[in-house]
User: Fold this.
Amino acid sequence: MSVFWRVVWREVGIISHRPLLWIATIGVPLFSALFMTTIFGNGAIQEIPIGVVDDSFTAISRDIVRTIDSSPTINITHRYTSSSEALAAVRNREIYGYVVLPHDLTRNMVCGTRSTIPYYYHYAFMSIGAQVESTLRTLLTMASLDPIIVTANEMGVSERQIMAFLEPLNSDIHPLGNASLNYRTYLAEPFFFIMFQIIILITTVYVLGSEKSHSKEWLATANSNIFTALAGKLLPYVFAFIASGIAALYVMYGIKGLAPLELYGSLWGLVAAMLGLVVASISLALFTYSLFPNMTIVLSAVSMIGSLGATLSGITFPIASMHPIFHYVALILPIRHFTLIVQNQLYTEGSYGVVWLHAAILGAYCLLPLLTASHLHKSIISGNYEKIE
Assistant:
């Protein structure tokens, strides 16, 4: 048996006696995939609790309340006697917004005088606030047109004619990539792979740090070749994470009823991108650990790197709108390049000509450990590796 495979089988033996490693490499990624796929329900925000302050308390105001309450997105759960009472409820997060129907609403509508219906919504929760705002704006616009339509009908003008007059232009909206405006499509896949990268980074640091007490025996198994020692030790984890990543892709794209996304490109393109993410993340963790092999420092560093991916992947906030320095910071994170490749596969026909640069950068992460492996080797030979905490 060659030296390399001796190191590999040594690590396989270690894994077989450590259930925690099975959980970290297989169990946690699969659980995360199922969790992210199912946590968003049907992917639509529904039944957002709001309140109403009806100072008019007339048949017209009650019709407006019924119109608002008919929407599946929002649900009138509370009625208040004053705006201050409703505002206190928003601050206590009992509701996410409220509508005020003024006392002169009916009189103004009957007399043809312009009336204002104020509504307030909690925009600290942007996704919920945006849903409340757009729904109330649409419903109140519809309600404001009802008296005009009724009057026009009494004058012999058809509803179609009056709507053509009031709204001479119609919008024909076509959302691309997420036609159903589904939150599972928006969040499930990106957030899973952000979590997946964090799991890979932390697990890699853990398995390297676990050699602290018998590092010389590990190196001796590899005939004192640090590259053979590292490659043989980490190869089983590369295969384990690739297997769990492929299983996660099947959960998200292959199981009928659970799959949150439509795939326009190639599933094999996603597998190749995921392979690049696994290798790049392990290489980044190895590079960081070899630079200063200290468990406390490195675990903090890789956790920070993984957490930055939630923002700097470009999913939750566009990179172009960030401070210019973060345009470059994003480029050093594997998850950013992985995200661009995956989006190319999800939302287009998957042309690799568009993403060749990002694929090359993911592959280039394999070169990083070459810069610091000698430093790790010296630490093991000198005995400093065994003294670190």
User: Anything to note?
Assistant: The CA atoms of residues 109 and 115 lie 7 Å apart.
